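Board work, copied verbatim: Endonuclease/exonuclease/phosphatase
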Amino acid sequence: MRQLNLLSYNVQAGIYSRQYSDYLTNSWKHLLPHPERLVNLSRIAQVLRQFDLVGLQEIDAGSLRSNNIDQVQYLARLGSFPHCYRQINRNLGPFARHSNGLLSRLRPARIVEHRLPGLPGRGAVTAEYPLSNGEHLAVAIVHLALGWRARRRQLDYLACLAEQHPLMVVMGDFNCGCDSKGLNNMVRKAGMRGLDCELKTFPSWRPRHNLDHILISRPLKLVSARVIDYALSDHLPLSMTIELPDGVRFAETIPSARPAPVSTASSS
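↓ predict structure ↓
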């Protein structure tokens, strides 16, 4: 097995957004539970089932607003992912537990949490997958700051992290587009690729900005990339299929029998 189907998705804690006014009318859902949330997460799970590895942002690890349900575990169960992990970046006690999430069909050999520079509340989680040549593929899931100063420091941190892993994927909500100087510097310094200005993910109801990215080390082959037109959050999910270098395979075989996918439209 040499190919891996990736998905990055900011799920907005399961809140369904259709228009800008929903940020105001749905603001209470960021604090209190609502039955629509589980229905929306169940729909999201139908998309996730098509992929081998999923990175989630703005996922709740179990609090009042999620009805004390760990949303990472919930999506892992519905999507039939045998391995999952959540990194809590902003813990507001019983009210909210803002997290990054990992869903995987492969078993990671190691998982490392990183606290990103800037104000508390931003992190990256890295999963390492062993390869047949004794090396590993590192996959980092990130959610970067809104402010450009903190985001620039975080991008510098990610560039240094990528230098430690010859084969690496960095994916998530970068909160900046392909015209960002800091993002382009990070990509150039780390020797990565994958920036595509046409892959617009935000807002989901009228995507005009490419805030979500999947970046890969140059030894990895980019087979395909697309935005999935499945507007359940305020972001659209971004997918990519990658391939390992010639002669290299995953040490563990990805199960060939994935759950049946749903039909979705795509744009790229």
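Residues 3-250+263-267 form a domain with the Deoxyribonuclease I; Chain A fold (CATH 3.60.10.10).
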